[in-house]
Amino acid sequence: MQAVSDGARWMVRLVEGERLPDVFVEFARAHGIRAAAVPMGIGQLTQVRLAFWNGTEYVPREIPTPVELVSLSGSIGEAEGEPSVHLHATVGLADHSTVGGHLVSGTVGLLVESLVETFPGRAFPRPFDESVGLRRLELGGTG
Amino acid sequence: MQAVSDGARWMVRLVEGERLPDVFVEFARAHGIRAAAVPMGIGQLTQVRLAFWNGTEYVPREIPTPVELVSLSGSIGEAEGEPSVHLHATVGLADHSTVGGHLVSGTVGLLVESLVETFPGRAFPRPFDESVGLRRLELGGTG
Amino acid sequence: MQAVSDGARWMVRLVEGERLPDVFVEFARAHGIRAAAVPMGIGQLTQVRLAFWNGTEYVPREIPTPVELVSLSGSIGEAEGEPSVHLHATVGLADHSTVGGHLVSGTVGLLVESLVETFPGRAFPRPFDESVGLRRLELGGTG
Fold this sequence. Notes:
3 copies of one chain form a homotrimer. Chain A is mostly beta strands. Chain A has one domain: CATH 3.30.1330.80. Chain A is built from 1 helix and 10 strands, in the order E-E-E-H-E-E-E-E-E-E-E. The first copy, chain A, has one helix at 22-31; strands at 2-6, 9-14, 19-20, 36-53, 58-63, 67-79, 82-92, 98-118, 128-129, 134-135. The two termini of chain A are 27 Å apart. In chain A, 52% of the residues are buried.
């Protein structure tokens, strides 16, 4: 992973074998990012697990073959003092059809390029909400 | 709806039962936003109506069950003195297939998180173009 | 093509008949942009060619009918002294299904609106990597 910034805006470059979302956790930790949005990510994933929330649990779908990462969207917050990353993705298959959902995990293939827009001085908490069984982003006060 | 900003960049949090695109109209009105892009939105929608422009009219598709909001993209301009919001979305269904198009309406489920990038001091007009039967964004002068 | 900026953030408006990705090359050249991300693009394309990288070559799919541009993501770098644009897209068809991949080319229909986030003073090189047969974005030093 490499990253360059212009103020609060970061361009991130992920290389073969790196894992999503873990590499965004490392990125956030390395740069002290506690509040951010991920509006863009493209490239190739060689393995991806997407999931659909059915109201009780995430129903996963594993795609073990290379796919085009067509859209990547998400946020970086904080949970229990550690970066908390939540990502959704659309991927393009060999027949150009698309599959999408919550990105549980993905392995970078040739490259992934991503834009991260941070909110310096803020922290977005992501507490676990027992009533729904999920962590949910809050916008917090100024951290 | 909650929103926090870092200069021209806003993070928006929508909660259960709020309606798209209306809640972005309220957001724009509350903060005097007359020119913006919406590059990111993720979360869950419990009801969504997408549409395809066939050259004459929008052909709708209603999805009455919860879906993953996988991508949300759009713009905020101004029409007849009011905020004008145009959104496109990709949603992930229970079988992880995706459906996409113009987002006519959607109801927020567990949460929607969205990034909005504004252009302070500008207004993007969205006049109705009778030749095509649609409103189309212009970039305007500095407002 | 029209474009307005607020610092490093640009809103771009493409009109009927303009071609992607060429028009982003012209945009980058006109404004001296050597490093940028494209996190948002919506509108209509009347013709689009998407492709899937199968490890050896891009397998194309041509869609000769109008489609909704549902997501547009990419980056602007530099290759051999010229702007180098790489885009991925999801498009919505008449039946609201979606197709996605590397955007080889597309012709703008009624309108395309796009957000471009630049990194002033930087250049992202996109050298050809013979080992994989593709150009790959690097983040460079400060240009």
